[in-house]
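Problem: given the chain below (464 residues), write out its structure.
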Amino acid sequence: MKNLFLLFISFYSTQLFAQDVTNTFNNAYKKFAADKAFKHATISLLVINNTTGKTVTSVNTETGLAPASCQKVITACTSFELLGHNFIYKTILGYTGKIVNGVLDGDIIIKGSGDPTLGSWRYPETAEESIISEFKQAISREGITEITGHVYADESAWKGEVIPDGWIWEDIGNYYGAGARALNWRENQYDLFLKSGNKIGDTLQYVNNTPPFIDGLNFKIMATSAAKGSGDNSYIYIPENNKETYVRGTIPIDENHFSISGSMPHPQTQLAITLEAALKKMPVESIAMNHPAFQHNTNGLNNFYSHQSPNLDSIIYWFLQRSINLYGESLIKTLAYHFTNVGATDSGVNIIKNFWSKKGIEPSAINIIDGSGLSPANRVTTKTLVSVMQYARKRDWFPSFYNALPDINGIKMKSGSISDVLSYTGFIKSKKNIDYTFSFIINNYDGNANDVRKKMWALLDLLK
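Solution.
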């Protein structure tokens, strides 16, 4: 009887505390929503007390809003569920022709399957130098000491667009706007180095770029020097079907080697040329000048090596921690290829919608057109995001998912940010051991993003 009494007191106390927090939080939300920064904004907020199962706050939870990178939790959870947390990508090496006395009278072919980590610096084993060394060793073990032909990239496993619908011109020339291919390299990113002047308004000078050869880019530097400490406010623009690449915006004065990162137009060619240069012990630039640009026929290909990517646990860790759009676009196309043999974004979108529809989420509540949330045309409800997060809590892969969520302001949550959009989705454990799942999206706010962000954090802090 004594134990039952203590259990009742504990339960009753928890209920009273939860009710007190609910009142405090809702009163604070009313003041938050009345802020002039949100006069023309749409706010959606859903907070569920996982301990009691009750709703703490529900505001516009069925309204579809641009979720920005919070959409990544949908792609991540769907990938965990449908691909498995141990899923790996395989990149195949093969050759055409014949090997005679160590000389390959033919070509080396690199066949991709969408691995977004190939050449990535985030893992020691996938860094550019490691991959090239690994491939060279595999070629040597095959008995090849010399090639008469070239190294080619085979992307035939995926068909379809590289850039998803809905991405904007301001984004696609920059590193975070790199599209996903069947063969990705260095996260499809290059680094451009610039020199600024010593006066505000001075024109910038081109220094160099890494890697040393970028196919098809002629830089037009229109960016200027800005105040010291002003940071990177530069953007790279690549007009469609135009090799002229424009750099606009500003970087601080007195910089001699300031780095900005862009999206590599032809990463598959860059990889092929880099490997060929390593095999022939020649500069990348020399190989590039003489490398034929045509689609290689891989009929009769002799496959001899398979490179394996880090597993999905690790990929999703970086996907969520660093909000890498490329990883999301690779995953959504991988889902499509896995189930339809067509690596296309729209097929991946349909797979995601169909999967969650079977879990009770209407397709119109996941009105998405990409895998990363970069498009401002995506529309997702906070009810959807909370439902996905709560589903994840019950799965065996949840520890990996939870670990992948960033720790922001002392809360395990994914953030999202595009023009006039801020969002957060995650989990909060209070000092009283009450668990909350929440999703918080604001579209069309007014004012400084950092100020709005701090106001959102201050409200969520009340649940700690």
